[in-house]
Design brief:
Keywords: Toxin-antitoxin system
Order of helices and strands: HHHH
InterPro entries: Ribbon_hlx_hlx, TacA_1-like
Shape: elongated
Protein name: DUF1778 domain-containing protein
Radius of gyration: 23 Å
Helix content: 55-70%
Mean pLDDT: 93
Structural class: mainly alpha
Pfam families: TacA1
Family: Belongs to the TacA antitoxin family.
Amino acid sequence: MATTRLDLRLDEAIKAKAEKASALLGLRSLTEYVVRLMDEDATQVIEKYESFSVEGDVFDRFTQACEQAKAPNKALKDALAFTEAKGIK
């Protein structure tokens, strides 16, 4: 159940177009349509900026390098502590 509001102003033509699209999709309201669009778009944007893929043998080379890595040195441990203290993930 929704618990927060979003107020906005928009051009009448945009609202009319959105209402028509909402009706054509069989949605109950313009709000339902806007919420659906926002959720879908936000999901795509987040996925675009928070994920990546690699081609070819890049992942295999990366995992091999990780497996062959030495124990972390003080600088790396300090960097990890810094990011944790700042809330960086």
